[in-house]
Design brief:
Elements (H helix, E strand, L loop, with lengths): L14 H9 L4 E3 L9 H8 L4 E4 L2 H6 L6 E4 L4 H9 L6 H11 L2 H15 L12
Parallel strand pairs: 1-2, 2-3
Helix pairs in contact: 2-5
Length: 132
Amino acid sequence: SVPSGTIDWRGFVSTAELQRQLGACRALINTPKWNEAYGNVVVEALACGVPVVAYDRGGPGELIQSGRTGWLVPPDDVEALTAALARIEQLERRDCREWVEAHASCQVFAERVERWIRDGLVAGDASISLSL
């Protein structure tokens, strides 16, 4: 249902090439029709310093700081999406990367998992709490 020439399929590219190509984009448009649990594509774009314009639905709605790392618009509102894209130059690309380093790096994730595991252990006997 997409007009010919709309999509430029490049197939599999290496991580370095993906980062190079993605990093050259002015913005990533993310328009999920369902509630994504997390939004890896959003985080990957932000890590490359690329602001994200997305529907405020699911994971993107929790990851994007509207007005700082991208713009969130009402779900399925194409006019609002277009208007947000026109404002993309107002954002600082380095804010996108800094957000990922502070909230979505491997180190931050590992610390979260470790804290979750430690909170589930009963002090003293290393058994697991049933309150998880």
